[in-house]
Amino acid sequence: MATDSLYDTREVDGITVVTFRQSQILDAMTIERMSTGLKELVGGREGGRFVFDFSRVTYMSSSALGMLIGIQRRVTRKGARLKLAGIQDDIMEVFRITQLDRVFDIYKGTEAALEAFRKNL
After folding, report:
1. What is the pTM of this model?
2. What values do phi and psi take at 64, rounded to 5?
3. Closest listed residue to residue 52, CA positions, set 21, 93, 79, 13
4. CA 121 to CA 113: how far, in whole Å?
5. Is 81 helix (H, G, I), strand (E, B) or coil?
6. Rounded to whole angstroms, what are the CA distances from 51 to 28, 37, 41, 64, 103?
7. pLDDT tens column, 20-35
8. Helix locations, the chain, DSSP H
9. Cα gap 9→20, rounded to integer Å
10. Residue 65: CATH number of its domain
């Protein structure tokens, strides 16, 4: 398991689970650092499978959403797959309004996302 002040990573059945530690993902410096780390993580794994766990996150800025879109593009280019999990209701509403819920595979919790990977969904 790798740890960064922004997130923890662990492997479950060959799937990389990234659990965000910050309750709020707001400022540009944090988002840039997070983006760099996640791009490096995703970039090193052709055909990888990733779950981003947002269960501790209560607020995300629009810049953080933009960063996620960039990560999703990188994942797709690498032939990898990404699922989001544990998104709080208030943040999920933003995903719905912006139609990002159509861009990302979103699950209620990490276990549901892992199970979807196991079933190859």
Report:
1. 0.93
2. -65, -40
3. 21
4. 9
5. strand
6. 23, 15, 12, 17, 15
7. 999 999 899 999 999 9
8. 28-43, 62-77, 89-97, 110-118
9. 9
10. 3.30.750.24
Neighbouring-strand partners of residue 7: 20
Which residues span the domain enclosing 27? 2-118
Q: Which amino acid is at 56?
A: R
How many structural domains comprise the chain? 1
Q: At what angle do helices 62-77 and 28-43 cross, to 10 degrees?
A: 10
Cα–Cα distance list, 35 to 65, 108, 120 (Å): 11, 23, 27
Interval 84-111: pLDDT, tens: 999 999 999 999 999 999 999 999 999 9
Output the six-digit token pair for 88: 């709080």
